Every structure is written in structure tokens, then in C-alpha cells.
Amino acid sequence: xxxxxxxxxxxxxxxxxxxxxxxxxxxxxxxxxxxxxxxxxxxxxxxxxxxxxxxxxxxxxxxxxxxxxxxxxxxxxxxxxxxxxxxxxxxxxxxxxxxxxxxxxxxxxxxxxxxxxxxxxxxxxxxxxxxxxxxxxxxxxxxxxxxxxxxxxxxxxxxxxxxxxxxxxxxxxxxxxxxxxxxxxxxxxxxxxxxxxxxxxxxxxxxxxxxxxxxxxxxxxxxxxxxxxxxxxxxxxxxxxxxxxxxxxxxxxxxxxxxxxxxxxxxxxxxxxxxxxxxxxxxxxxxxxxxxxxxxxxxxxxxxxxxxxxxxxxxxxxxxxxxxxxxxxxxxxxxxxxxxxxxxxxxxxxxxxxxxxxxxxxxxxxxxxxxxxxxxxxxxxxxxxxxxxxxxxxxxxxxxxxxxxxxxxxxxxxxxxxxxxxxxxxxxxxxxxxxxxxxxxxxxxxxxxxxxxxxxxxxxxxxxxxxxxxxxxxxxxxxxxxxxxxxxxxxxxxxxxxxxxxxxxxxxxxxxxxxxxxxxxxxxxx
Amino acid sequence: xxxxxxxxxxxxxxxxxxxxxxxxxxxxxxxxxxxxxxxxxxxxxxxxxxxxxxxxxxxxxxxxxxxxxxxxxxxxxxxxxxxxxxxxxxxxxxxxxxxxxxxxxxxxxxxxxxxxxxxxxxxxxxxxxxxxxxxxxxxxxxxxxxxxxxxxxxxxxxxxxxxxxxxxxxxxxxxxxxxxxxxxxxxxxxxxxxxxxxxxxxxxxxxxxxxxxxxxxxxxxxxxxxxxxxxxxxxxxxxxxxxxxxxxxxxxxxxxxxxxxxxxxxxxxxxxxxxxxxxxxxxxxxxxxxxxxxxxxxxxxxxxxxxxxxxxxxxxxxxxxxxxxxxxxxxxxxxxxxxxxxxx
Lengths: 526, 344
Prior knowledge:
The complex is a heterodimer of chains A (526) and B (344). With 526 residues, chain A is of the alpha/beta class.
């Protein structure tokens, strides 16, 4: 079926780039023109997957979602900026193609088969957006709606996963003999859980297994679920649901996007939808629907994107800021916030022990925790996905900067009693987690630049030296490197305050020292 | 949206198809109007009455069970054409009408089998810039009886496009003539000897071969280009140069890649840097006249349409270029490029 007008996609490339002149005469052009073809996705040469993803994005923001916001701002040159109001709020008009996080982050989750949580008040399009993602994966709207799990206080594990076949229950001599009628949604590539914070705690645990480990278990029977993109919705993610969401389940969620308020200036479009009974999810163009093979291919292409060392180093530096709690442990390795959390240490007492450090300058003082390995892996994946979406061959610092707040939202917990939040100009960050995380990364990058770590990184030099391998290293060289490490440790520790990045540098030097020490012992035994 | 009024008995099938899925078509119209506010229901009715109805009548005679599918496809094409204003205000409207009322009817068997693919593609083809669409429709109509599948129709469309002036499709067309029935090929090129195999070989071998009017190798094959004020592209007398494979034309500050053969020519914008490395040759090479056995090399004479022509009649030669099969010459007093078929 031809579907073209309401379903019209951008004919022009969604991200025009200057390309070297390459004249190709494609006979397919003869049959292209103002009349689009419904099945062109199948009949023409396959559209590049990043272009297809951008087409999907622009179709959603132009057709499906009313009043999109451009909060993911990219700049190609200094932008026009305006200060408005008593608080001198800054309005920036981006100079490069910018995006709406509410559409973009779910799409990146779709592309990477990760887990996205929509939060926001009722009636803001959270569920509708999730359904669109299901349709993009090629499922009919009716099937997506039927497969959507609606959280409610009486939801059982059987409701979620399936039921044993009654006949088997009567005949079976062991649980192994009982076949399970697994719910259809378990095998889908897009899974939607509506109002997940209304699911009872016990059922949440079954959900956790499915989300975290990719399988469902019922009466000794296992169902292996395919890699899927998950979309969950919650009216209130701060404990306002019927049940408290278990921490492990929250931690499995990769990104959180907030439904921003509707701009009444778009009321005419809303009115038209009512009058004409338009339902965008019913009219998703075939050209932006992804096959399972394309989903797998897209994931692989995202993973292949490189993260240049300078970008990675800034992320390392940023991640180093937060875990250190000097008073939490005696041994260097245990000087972490997690040590204090596990011991149930009073947070106010712990922060009171911080003496001497500049608590305004130390970014670590703004948070109650550090970043987990899972957080960092998620961040790397989404940074790559962002670069993929933008048609780049490698991740740019701005890609990382833009996805970071959405990935770390709910992961990096702010210490609202920290001096930073007491500054009047920073008070808004108490409620604006996205803005807070973005300024946190910006502040980290500014410090990185101040220390000139791109050019002056003696610890990095030693790490790079070690990365070349120990094979063929002479005893003399190993001993010299040990001396270098000890000299650098002495230099770094002399009369300096202990901040997160320094702590991690010292831990790395300790690691290198130990590896060279072991090697030296081995060489001497040969 | 109400269905158009019945015009004749032949529209019964169309009306039935529209009536059976009335809600769907109405919803499609509403959603289309959401994206294209200029979508006009009267214009759409006009398209259905004047273009779709004759085609449906033809399909009903051949494959009545395919009528609903063709109506679906045709309705969507109509929505597209009307929403962008091509129907009813394009200069090519008459050609579109002819396509639907005559050519597509002749192709109705193939269209009925694959309407979703063929109808939009063939409609777009009629609107292709640079194509002599009138001739293309005539060519397609002339061979329609020999085309039974959608693949054959699409292949024939490319071959006809080349035959009707889109010289840059020559290579693609030469590949596709292998897929066409011999009868279609003979009808299209009308070789004097009626030998399809010999025709294919000759077309492949010589760019300037014309099966219906063989060209001598010392004749002017074409004079192409014109002054911008007379509908051409050249603001000044052009010059021509070649990298050995392709011909490039410059006029004023603009540059083009020139592709020409016995069935037409096309100019494609080129960047100045593409021509940078190619030297402009302002004189005929030594011995050039001998190739043509010209009596007076200073005033070379070549045949054109059976007449002997002095190249100097267009003024002094300003540039000369050659490729494997073509000589190109420009003149001081002419806005056209003279192309001469190279001796084979």
C-alpha cells in the first residue's frame, strides 16, 4: 500500500554533508520523482542504516510528536544567546542540527537494543512514544498494543511471563514435564512496560531477570528472550508509584528521558488531530521500519565506531571525580563512597570528615556515589550510538557530552547538601538533573583543560608504555620503569590534596608497579 | 470526501472499489491533507475521473480481480500528484493524461500485476526532466503488446528513455535490451534488416549507430547546445575539452559534462576542478583533415544530413577534443558544439 503524504519522509538527506564530486548515473533515478513508492525500502538499494534512523527521527518529530523540543544542542559556530527574566535564563539558538531528547534517546535505545524509561506526568505521550518504537521494529500497531505490559498492583509473575498448560499440570510427574505457554511479548524485539512502578515487588524480580539476563523462568522452564529494546514508562520515578521500584531494576535502565511540557502554541495541530482522527502510529512509513536483520546490523555498526583517545581520556577524568571518599577507608583501595554505603555510614558524618579539600572545586563533593562499570559501558554505547545517528565515523566529545546526562540521570546521585547547591545560581540544579549533569561534565572538561592533560599526562605515558607489553623487557628496563613509577608517585603525592583523579592515577601507578614487580621477580628466576 | 459521480458504465468497477473501502480512502485523504494543506479534493476527483478511470476500465477487461489493487495504487499516486500541485497545474499535465488514458492502458496487464511498483514509477518517468516524454510515451505504447511483466516494462522504460534523448542511460539501456523481447526491440529501433542480434551488436559497437538511418563516420553527428536567450544553456560560445574518456563543455563560468550519442545528448553540471587538469586544445591536430580525406585542410568539409559543410562557416575553431568515438569542435561564432562521429 502506498502511504506517502502523512507518512512523507525527507527526500533530502537528513544530515547534508559536503561530499567530493562523484557523478553517478543511476537508472533508478529515472523512476524516482514526486510520487513515492510504498515498498521502495525493499526494492531500492538499501538505505544506509544511520540515514534510516535519522529519517525515523525526523518523521517522528515532524509528524508524530507535537511541539518537539530541541534540548540536545549542537553548535557549529558561536550561537545567538539571549538572557531573559530575573534569573537571567539563557536561551540558545543552536547553529548546528539539534535534536529532541524525548525522541532521540528512545531511538538510540532502539538502535542499540537498550532500555529506556519515559518519565513525566500523565497524558504527555510516554506510552504513545513507546508504541511508535514497537511499530518501527516492524510489529503491527495492534500487536504492539496487545504485547504492552500494563503495570498494576495485582500483576502476578504468570501475568507477566505465562502460564503452565493445564493439561500438563494434571498429567506431569515432575515440573520438567510441565510446558509453559509463554506470553507472546517475551519473544518480541521491542518490549514495553507501561507504568512499571505499579508492578508488585515480587513480579519486579521476575522482570529483573528478564531485563538483566534475558531469560524468563517459570516452574523450572526457561525461555530465552532475544536481544530487545525495552521501553518503560512511569508517571513519577521518584517513588510515587504504587510500589517502590527495586534498585537493581532501576539500575538496569540505561537512559531516562523526561516528557517535556506541551507548548500550547501547537494547539492547532492538536485540534486537527482530534478533528481528523489522526493516529500517527497507524501511519508509520514502511521506509523507516527496521527488520530484525537491520536491527542486528545496526547494533554491530554502532559498536564498530571508534572512540578517539582524547575523548576517552576526558571520560576517564570525569569518571574519576566521584567515587573517592577519603575518610571512608584506611587502605587506598577502600577510600570509596561505596565502602561507606555498604557499611551504612552516616552521610553527614562522612562529608564532615572532608577537611582541607575545596568542596566547591571538588566535583566529587556534588555526588553521593560514583559511577559503576555498567554506567560507563552504557555511556560508551550511547556515545557511539549518538555518533552513528549523526553519521560520524568516530565519537566526538560533543556526542559524549550530549548523551551523558540522560545516561547518568538517576545513576549519579546528587548530594543536595553539598556547598555547590547552596550557591543561589546553582539552586535550579536541585531539580534539573540533566542540566546539573551537563554542567558537571563541562566543569570536569574545564579542569582537564586547565591541567593540560591532553599534552601533559605522565601517568598516561607510563600506562601506554606498559600497554606495549612486557615481552622482551630486560631486567634492567623493568627496574628502571619501577623507579620511574616510584618517582612519579612521590611527585604526585608531595604536598597535594587527594582528589578523585589523583586517587585513580595513584591506583593505576600501583597496578603498574605491581605488574612490573611481578615481572621483575619472574625475570630474576629465569 | 464523497466519491466522484459516475460517468459511464466503465467506471462501475472503479466506483465499486472506492465504495468498498470508502472509510480507508477517506482516512487516507484526511491524513494526506494533514501533510499537504493544498491538497484539493476537486483536483483529486479530476485525477480519478480523467486518469484513473480509463486505466481501471482497461484493467477490468484484462484482470478484473486486480481492480482493487490498481485503485489503491492509483489513489495514492493521485494524492501525491495533487498534493504537490502537479495535477492539475504542471506543464506536463497533458502528457500525464495521455499516459493514463492511452499508454498505461496499453500496459494494463503488467500494471495490474504489480500496480504498487509500476504506477508510481511510470508516473515519475513521464515527469523526468530532459526526457522527450511525448516520444517516450509513443515508444512505450508501440511496444506495449510485447511486454507482459513488470520487469520487462521497467527495462523497456529505460531503453526508451535512452532512445528518447537521455543519453546518459546508454550503458544501462544496452544492458537492458538483452531482457527485452525481440519484437519489442525491432519495433523500437526499426532496423532495416530486421535482425535483432545484429542490431544489438551494432548499438553496442558504435555510439553513433542509428539502425533506421545509418551514419557515415565522416559526418557531423550532432550540433548541440544553444544560446541561453534561445532556450539553451550557453551564455557565451562554448569551448570543449576531453580527458580521453569524457567530453566537457565550458561556457562563461559554467562547466558541464557532455554525454551524447545518436539518440540524444545531455549536459550535467561539472565542477571547475574537474576540468583543471584537462588542457584546452585550440587547434585541430595535424593530419586531422587526412582522416576525412578533406580537399582543403584549412577549410575542412564534412558531410551533414547529406550535405557537404564547411566547418569554417561557424567561425574560427576555438577548441577541439576527441574521445574514443567522437570528435568535438567549437567555433567562435556558434553557441553549439559540433560532434563528428569518429571513423570506426
